[in-house]
Design goal:
Length: 211
C-alpha cells in the first residue's frame, strides 16, 4: 500500500514538471511610428522597455527600394508591431532587443516564438542575429505561430536582432514574441505545493484505511 502512495506522489511531482513560456514582448508599449518618404534616410526609435523587467526594444527602419510616391511605415501600437509598404516599396525593419537571462543554463527545448497576426501575399523573411541565429520564411497570407529552435543551454543575457524583409509591397503584423524552454531539472514545486500535495495524499491514505 505504501508503494502505491509513493508512486502516486512521484506521478504528481512529475506532472508539475513542464515547459516554461516567457512572453518578453507583447507590444503593449507603443513605439514609433517611423515613416520613410521619398529620400528619407534610415530612421531609428531608441530602446524603450517592453513592460518585462530588463527587456528593451529598439527599431531601425531602412529604405530598400521604391519609386515616388513612397509609403513605408513601422510602429508598435495597439498591442502589435505593424509594418506596411506601399505598392512597389520595399524596406527592412531591424528590431533589436536587450535581454536579461531568460532561460537558465542546461535548459532544453529552447524555442524563440513569434505570434503572427497576418501577412499579405508577398513572401517575407525573418532573420535572427546575436543570441539567436537563423532565418525562416513567412508564407503568403499567413497567421499563426512561427518558431526558431535554438541550441540547448542558457538564453541571455545579451542582444538579439530580428530583421524583417520581403518582396516590394510587403505588410506584416506581429502580436507577440516569446521564449519556450524546459528547465534542466523541470519545474520544481514550491515548498507550499509539496505540503499541500503531502496533505492530500495522507488524506487519501486515511480514507483507504477506514474503508
Amino acid at each position: 500500500m505504501k508503494k502505491f502512495y509513493l508512486a502516486l506522489a512521484l506521478a504528481a511531482s512529475a506532472s508539475l514538471a513542464s515547459a516554461t513560456t516567457i512572453v518578453f514582448d507583447d507590444f503593449s508599449v507603443a513605439q514609433g511610428p517611423l515613416n520613410l518618404g521619398d529620400g528619407t534616410p534610415t530612421q531609428s526609435a531608441a530602446g524603450i522597455g517592453t513592460g518585462v523587467a530588463g527587456v528593451s526594444r529598439a527599431l531601425t527602419f531602412i529604405p530598400v527600394a521604391g519609386a515616388p510616391p513612397v509609403q513605408r511605415t513601422a510602429q508598435v501600437t495597439s498591442g502589435v508591431l505593424d509594418i506596411t509598404n506601399g505598392t512597389g516599396d520595399d524596406s527592412q525593419l531591424v528590431v533589436t532587443y536587450t535581454l536579461p537571462q531568460l532561460a537558465p543554463p542546461g535548459s532544453t527545448g529552447v524555442q524563440l516564438t513569434l505570434q503572427i497576426v497576418g501577412s499579405d501575399a508577398n513572401p517575407i523573411s525573418v532573420t535572427a542575429g546575436g543570441l539567436a541565429t537563423g532565418s525562416f520564411n513567412i508564407g503568403a497570407n499567413f497567421s499563426g505561430l512561427i518558431t526558431f529552435t535554438l541550441a540547448a543551454g542558457a538564453f541571455g543575457p545579451g542582444t538579439m536582432t530580428l530583421t524583417f524583409d520581403g518582396n516590394p509591397g510587403w505588410d506584416l503584423t506581429v502580436d507577440s514574441l516569446g521564449l519556450d524552454y524546459t528547465p534542466p531539472n523541470g519545474v520544481v514545486p514550491e515548498p507550499a505545493t509539496y505540503g499541500l500535495m503531502s496533505a492530500a495524499l495522507f488524506g487519501f491514505y486515511l480514507i483507504r484505511r477506514k474503508s
